[in-house]
Amino acid sequence: MVSPEEQPLGSASGADAAARGEALEALLDALLWELTEVRWAAIDQILEAMQSALAGGDSDAFVAATADLELSGPFRITKIGAVPVKPPPKVRERFNQLVYALGGTVPEMPEERSTGS
């Protein structure tokens, strides 16, 4: 995991700052998606690529992985029998790590707020 103090992307140029902002926006949007388990597994691989690129300071790979994430959103049509779900815990943790590494804060999920009733 990359801590905010170890952020290799972001301070060098405006392009890196823009890439970080776009990635943060894409991550926060994706936290709200409902996808099938198979699609979440693919998203997990994209998030892993984002983490690796961020840790290695590879801005081109980071931008490419962010684009992959943005293009992986929910479809308008779901296969019959497919059950879309919120991100599984493993994927949600990876989202949290990336959002934190990019200097953002992770919003509380609606289900987590309603469990205290």
Give a written overview of the molecule.
It is a single chain. This protein is an all-alpha fold. It has one domain. Helix content is 57%, strand content 0%. The chain contains five helices and no strands. It has helices spanning 14-30, 37-56, 59-70, 89-101, 110-114. Helix 1 runs parallel beside helix 3 (59-70). The longest helix is centred in the middle third of the chain and has 20 residues, at 37-56. The protein is globular, with a radius of gyration of 15 Å. The N and C termini lie far apart (34 Å). The model is unreliable at 1-7 and 112-117 (pLDDT under 50).
Structural features:
single chain; mainly alpha; globular; disordered N terminus; disordered C terminus
